[in-house]
Amino acid sequence: MIRSLVAGVGAYLPARVVDNDALASRLDTSDAWIRERTGITRRHIAADDELTSDLAVEAARRALERAGAKPAAVEAIVLATSTPDHTFPATATAVQRKLGAPIGIALDVQAVCAGFAYGLAVADSLLRLGHARTALVIGAETFSRLLDWNDRSTAVLFGDGAGALLLRADRQGGTLADRGLLATKLAADGRHYGDLWVDGGPSATRSTGHLRMNGREVFRHAVARLAESVLAVLGETGLSVDDLDLLVPHQANLRIIEAVAKRLGVPAEKTVVTVDRHANTSAASIPLALDVAANDGRLVAGRLVAVNALGGGFAWGATLLRW
Ligand code: UT7
Fold first, then answer.
1. How far apart are CA 123 and CA 164, in angstroms?
2. Of all protein residues, whose CA lies closest to atom 39 belonging to ligand 1?
């Protein structure tokens, strides 16, 4: 039996930091409103010449370094993003080229904020089916390019960044106590297509468009679906919430994170929060949060971790893994 092991994690945030006061100086909003309603205090915004692939490559390099691996070992690149460099080819192929990775599998996964959970599942399947022995799973976004900077209801919520995991196919072990990806739950409900979307695109409008959102509807569904999906992956393995060492939720809103943790009964000290510093980085938020937890010592080998995310579509999912 093959299992996908996490060999390394890495992340990258653009140098430019924009705090709430900077936004309040040009929009009808305030630091107090943004903090109270979202928990966000600042976000990183990519430089004009920085592309999603640049952020992704930097995160990937750091994940490889952590794993003690070279780009030559990368046999598959799965990039979760909704902000590709170009409509095509897949930004994963730009990452492959910039990284100097050899000929192999490279594709983008588009599930918006749930992209990293979907990307993990794709990479895990590639490894377990024997298509590759090493896969980079990257979440990288430049949402700043999709925002309507005159719309206070969305402009304050998002940031840019990237995070990456290097996964390795492993034939050792196969029990719940062994390391690796243990269970995945993915779902989508296209009836909510219009609740969180971009009003442009090559087929519909021949333009890029801007992000539009029915925030309250997203909030309501997020809390229910995110909690359910964690229970589903735990249920599949027979493990319980008490067995969890760490919950690493998608970072959209502190109120959503706290509501999900409360619903599940996961205490605050087991819940990783980065939304205050990173804002919502869509598909990048989970690997960015994993990187923070690895750096501050909360994430060490053997820990049981659940990640979950919901975004446009709606698409959502959760993964249970032993780090
Ligand atoms: O990754 C998934 C992506 N998205 C999400 O997860 C977002 C989920 N939703 C949310 O996080 C929240 O719904 C928001 C943060 C977007 C909004 O918070 P809310 O508590 O649901 O506020 P609301 O939309 O009900 O708006 C309350 C008021 C409104 O004014 P009125 O109608 O009560 O007079 C808004 O116009 O707040 C106003 N408002 C703002 N005021 C100051 C909306 N945005 C702002 C703002 N600054 N930036």
1. 12
2. 153
Give all strands of the β-sheet with 160-170 in edge-to-edge order: 3-12, 160-170, 134-142, 76-80, 105-109
User: Does residue 184 share a domain with residue 95?
Assistant: no
List the domain range (segments joined by +) for residue 86.
2-171
Calculate the alpha carbon distances from 302 to 101, 179, 321, 323 in Å: 29, 6, 9, 5
Structure tokens of 142? 């430049």
100's torsion region: left (phi>0), alpha (psi -120 to 50) or beta?
Answer: left
Intervals of the chain under pLDDT 50: none
What Å distances lie between residue 236 and 4, 226, 229, CA to CA?
A: 17, 16, 11
Residues with CB under 6 A from ligand 1: 29, 33-34, 37-38, 113, 152-153, 156, 196, 213, 215-216, 218-219, 222, 250, 252-253, 256, 280, 311
Which residue, chain included where needed, has tokens 């034939």? 171
Domain boundary residue among 138, 171, 204?
171
Closest residue by Cα to atom 7, ligand 1, is: 215
Evaluate whether 6 touches 178 at the Cβ level (below 8 Å): no
Q: What pLDDT does residue 256 have?
A: 98
Q: Are residues 68 and 143 in the same domain?
A: yes
pLDDT given for residue 172 in this prediction: 82
Those residues whose C-beta lies under 8 Å from the C-beta of residue 155, and which sit 6 or more positions away, are: 23, 27, 147, 148, 149
